[in-house]
Design a protein that fits this description.
Layout: H1 2-12, H2 18-25, H3 29-37, H4 58-69, H5 79-88, H6 95-108, E1 127-139, E2 142-153, E3 159-164, H7 169-183, E4 189-192, E5 199-202, E6 208-210, H8 212-221, E7 224-227, H9 237-250, E8 256-257, H10 260-274, H11 287-294, E9 309-314, E10 320-323, E11 326-329, E12 338-343, E13 347-352, E14 355-361, E15 369-370, H12 377-382, H13 386-389, H14 400-409, H15 415-444, H16 449-460, H17 484-490
Parallel strand pairs: 1-4, 1-8, 4-7, 11-15
Antiparallel strand pairs: 1-2, 2-3, 5-6, 9-12, 10-11, 12-13, 13-14
Helix pairs in contact: 2-3, 5-6, 14-15, 15-16
């Protein structure tokens, strides 16, 4: 285009001849004449590129494309996969020929062009969208993939982020509790994909069979759950776009934290920082200002939801229950019984007879054994020998006086049985009293079970105060010593 304009100026403005211009630009005179007669510059269009090797397979490839068009998007083959299938059928041509054919066929098919959408507008306090993403972080020096829960209020664009090791149902419930606490209220509608933790069955149209535990969450907070059409991400496009933006804003480059709790504290602060950006529609106002307008429209939270996932299980003969490929201990009196296991985002609880009988911190490793030695105390009464090699007692963090007594007693014969007697006293007298008794025994250098138990009972039975003798019972005349009374006894016959 630049040479075309220069050529016209040289002839029409400067008056140079056609022959001089042709010699200078190394063009033919006919080409120069053509340019001088044209009003616009020349446009070169690439002709249809021949594909001789693909020609014999074009019909087969088109038939596959028609068949894939009837399948869901996630099940359709890419151009690369179609190329590999054609190679198995005998095709010996290049991949780019198949790629061009697929692109042209899709563009020529109905609806093959750019898909059109309708811009959406949401009233304040009505709709919030939810989604998951997977992000790379460094926790405690180890690179890990965390599952990031995304929430986005559609009117103000205020977002909330929280990370978890899993995408299980208890994580979904806990994420909602945190998000509603951060927003200071609950929206009228929540929009989701169709994960199994939320939707059990996808029915015709918009009808869904939601998970009962998730419905309990929705009924508690009184919001309406709405599930998108499968493979229709545009129905919650705001949070879909947020996933890519958050990856750029928060996880590029990869951040590093001591643990997951520190990451979540930083994410919450980052959500507040990003809210200071201009609103994408109301350019003159920030997201934080729009959220301040929307927040009063949210429904007030009366009480947080108890977000646990519950399942029945049986306690094994070794007093263990299994969850998420880990095993947790239960008090020995429940061995062999049916109990309910409740999993929260941060802990595991075991419920029997309507009460929580055991609690453990949640472990997200695999094949781990989490034991509470106090759960096996009643077993030690019958099997004191297990104290020496029992798995629950290998790394038992006892108070210093009890640990010192244990070390002393385990060096003596029958020391394990003696220490078990002391442990059993904890059930009646508590840790503080038994620890003081152990300190007294160590101080007096007499470390035996009877001595320690004696100290325990003395601490449990305080010294009775001396009672005051009434004045009416006080002796008026004090008795005097008289040894002659004993001599008088010698005269009695039976005394002799």
């Amino acid at each position: 285009m630049e040479s075309f304009a220069k050529l016209r100026r040289r002839h029409l403005v400067k008056g140079e001849s056609i022959s001089a211009i042709a010699r200078d630009l190394n063009l033919s005179r006919n080409t120069v004449k053509k340019y001088l007669k044209a009003d616009v510059g020349p446009a070169y269009r690439r002709q249809q590129q021949p594909c001789p090797k693909l020609g014999a397979f074009a019909e087969q490839l088109e038939r596959w494309l028609v068949q894939d068009g009837l399948r869901p998007k996630r099940e359709r083959r890419s151009a690369k996969r179609l190329f590999e299938d054609l190679q198995q059928a005998g095709y010996a041509g290049a991949y780019d020929s198949v790629q061009r054919f697929v692109k042209q066929w899709k563009a020529a098919s109905p609806g093959g062009g750019t898909e059109a959408f309708i811009p959406l507008a949401f009233p304040p306090g009505e709709t919030c969208q939810f989604d998951w993403s997977h992000e790379q972080v460094e926790l405690g020096g180890v690179v890990q993939t965390v599952k990031l829960a995304h929430f986005r209020l559609c009117y103000s664009r205020q977002m909330f982020l929280v990370a978890y090791p899993r995408e299980t149902q208890e994580m979904v419930l806990d994420a909602h509790n945190r998000a509603f606490a951060f927003f200071g209220g609950v929206p009228e509608r929540m929009v989701y994909d169709n994960p199994k933790t939320i939707v059990q069955t996808v029915l015709v149209g918009k009808a869904r069979e939601f998970h009962p535990r998730f419905l309990a969450l929705a009924n508690h907070y009184l919001f309406e759950p709405v599930a998108c059409t499968p493979a229709s991400g545009w129905e919650k496009g705001q949070v879909e776009n947020q996933v890519g933006n958050v990856r750029e804003w928060c996880f590029t480059p990869r951040p590093a934290f001591a643990d997951l709790a520190a990451l979540n504290v930083w994410l919450e602060a980052r959500c507040r920082e990003l809210a200071e950006r201009p609103h994408p529609v109301e350019k003159a106002r920030s997201i934080a200002q729009m959220f301040a307008e929307e927040q009063p429209r949210l429904r007030v939270i009366t009480a947080p939801f108890d977000g646990y996932f519950e399942q029945p299980c049986r306690v094994s003969s070794t007093c263990l229950v299994a969850y998420d490929r880990n095993r947790y201990s239960v008090p020995a009196e429940f061995a062999g019984q049916r109990v309910s296991l409740r999993a929260w985002a941060d802990r595991i609880g075991v419920v029997a007879d309507g009460r929580v009988v055991a609690e453990h911190a949640r472990c997200f490793s695999r094949e781990r054994l989490l034991l509470d030695p106090w759960h096996y105390l009643s077993v030690l009464e019958k099997k004191p020998g297990a104290l020496r090699h029992g798995a629950p007692f290998q790394h038992w963090a006892l108070p210093a006086p009890l640990a010192a007594v244990k070390a002393r007693l385990m060096q003596t014969p029958q020391g394990d049985r003696a220490f078990v007697e002391i442990l059993l006293a904890l059930q009646e007298h508590g840790m503080e009293r038994v620890s003081v008794a152990c300190e007294l025994a160590l101080e007096h250098r007499t470390v035996t079970a009877p001595v320690i138990l004696n100290h325990v009972h003395r601490l449990a039975s305080p010294v009775r105060p001396v009672s005051q003798v009434p004045t009416t019972l006080t002796l008026q005349t004090a008795p005097a010593a008289n040894c002659q009374r004993y001599d008088a006894l010698l005269e009695v016959p039976h005394a002799r």
